[in-house]
Amino acid sequence: MLVKEAPKQIGLVAKESGVPIKTIRYYEELGLLKALSRTEGGFRLFDLDVFARLNFIKRAQTLGLSLLEIKEFLDIHDQGELPCDRLEVKLKDKIVTIAQQIEQLQILKLELEGLLSGWETVPEIPENTICPIIERA
């Protein structure tokens, strides 16, 4: 017979997961986590699946997903489906966005290098200008 482990209080979940209590409360407020119930003292109690959800949330954040996007995937999971297809599309979109950002950063880098290559000291400081080298660009 399989014995189900007792729900864990929020403090223990925080300690075991490394996620601060405030963050767990915030995730619950956003609907990313669901407390089973509360103790008589008002402490939130979580089922053990909270650790898998917290791991998913942390990993998804490191991949650049927003909490709103993560909630969408958790909602699909909570309906009994795997969100992998939608997650794949979202990650492919992220790759396109990152490629665009890299391109914009490379252009900015070239602009900054060009500005610095022609850098010169301005002996006189006109009153109505902050830095004429940057302002003339």
Automatic annotation (TrEMBL):
It holds the Pfam family MerR-DNA-bind. The keyword Transmembrane helix does not apply. GO terms for molecular function: DNA binding; DNA-binding transcription factor activity. The keyword Transcription applies. Residues 9-76 form the HTH merR-type domain. Keywords: DNA-binding, Repressor, Transcription, Transcription regulation. This is Transcriptional regulator.
